[in-house]
Design a protein that fits this description.
elongated, 81 residues
Length: 81
Amino acid sequence: MIWKKRDSDGVNAVKETLKIVNIQGLSDDEKREFYATVSETSQLDLYTGHVEHGYSADAVATLASCPRCHALTRRMFVQPL
């Protein structure tokens, strides 16, 4: 795990560290447990479906709607493929 100091940016002002975890060596069960723990501690729902487009919160004018189609959005933790 690598810890990097992160500037307070309003979005992550309370959490001032970025955590990078290499999960390649984990078993499938360990990966499921890891993602469940991250979802729980981040207080974001875990989304396991297909993501058509994803955007950084810093790159969009509002988090309430998609900048491409203007559909309502919500923040979720997405498990990588």
